[in-house]
Amino acid sequence: MVRKITFWENKKVFITGNTGFKGTWLTILLLELGAKIKGYSLDEEKDSLFNKVSKQLKNQIENVKGDIRDYDLLKKEISVFGPEIIIHLAAQPLVIESYKNPLQTWDTNLMGTLNLLEAITNTKFSGTALIITTDKVYWNNNSNQQFKEDDFLGGYDPYSASKAATEIAVASWRLSFLDKNSIKLATARAGNVIGGGDWAKNRIIPDAIKSILKKDSLKIRNPYSSRPWQHVLDPLNGYLNLIEYLEENNIEHENKISSYAFNFGPNTTQNKSVLELIEKIYSFWPRKYQFDKNTIYHHESESLNLCINKSQKLLDWNPKLNFDLSVEMTTNWYKDFYLNSKHAMDICLKDINNFLNL
């Protein structure tokens, strides 16, 4: 899809979880497209992309500190802002953390989303709401199948299960309470995102960069697990394409749970193992290294493949970056930040504008 720049010009967009990794990239991207943004999120982590660019964003967005589980505050902020578009990213996003705090994970991911749905139903919101879930909503038996939007949902770990339940809850809410003529409600399931500015714990890119900087060996839980790695800008571009499509079209087969669900991932030929990802990073930032392969202590799927035919056909969306380019752009972001002392915002803007011009 050719981006209609004017679509986002002065569009009022409410983003939950805007201080997270994807939320920060989305915020900067939408500002470049001319949108007016209100963010609703917990305090950012000290070592986070949002923290690095917060001074530059301070006068460009309205930012509210709030918990997605606080219904009254959430409803108030939506009502006061009067958004045309809502993008829901707030979540407990880590599999390992979900084992440590399963109830908090379920409460945030499922009940937090239901709070948002209740809020948009009981305000004057009339537009499109996009709920971001994950590629891990599918019941994965390691058969190496390409998961389509109408495949069976499920989850082994609390994170995946809570997101699968969220998909069911969103579909139920849309059918039960929303007037399709005034509110469009969809979900997006994206593959494993990478990109500069990720410093989250227990994620492979931050761990790899730290190992380079500290000259330590890298500990990998599952080196041969294959994943649909994609640069963060590719699925974000897909989310925007989906919103534009929903604003201008009706989906006729709305009685199916998968009708308003869309996969965003790389072409399956671009799926690579964790080990291949690490070796590719080190090819762009050479160093001597060795791998310290830990014992696997939590269940993780051996492979995960997304079928993106629906997004390609309906939205005319395709990933712009292949695996090599995604890893190169990600690695160069950190090299610019650590070796060339460039500001995080400047690097993000360079990547975004290069991406938009592809």
Please compute the radius of gyration using only Cα atoms: 19 Å
Helix % is 40-55%
Low-confidence stretches: none
The CATH superfamily turns out to be: NAD(P)-binding Rossmann-like Domain
Spatial order of the strands in the main sheet? Answer: 3-2-1-4-5-7-12
Q: Count up the helices.
A: 13
Gross morphology is globular
CATH architecture: 3-Layer(aba) Sandwich
User: Terminal Cα separation, in Å?
Assistant: 12 Å
CATH topology: Rossmann fold
Q: On the 0-100 scale, what is the average pLDDT?
A: 90
> Strand fraction band?
5-15%
| Highest CATH level, the class | Alpha Beta
Strand element count: 15
Whole-number total of structural domains: 1
Largest sheet: 7 strands, parallel
| Content-based structural category | alpha/beta
H and E string: HEHEHEHEHHEEHEEHEEEHEEHEEHHH
Provide an overview of this structure:
The two termini are 12 Å apart. The strands form 5 sheets. A 7-stranded parallel sheet has the order 3-2-1-4-5-7-12, sandwiched between helices. A two-stranded parallel sheet has the order 6-15. The chain has a single domain, classed as Rossmann fold. The mean pLDDT is 90. It has 358 residues and is of the alpha/beta class. It has 13 helices and 15 strands. Helices cover 44% and strands 15% of the residues.
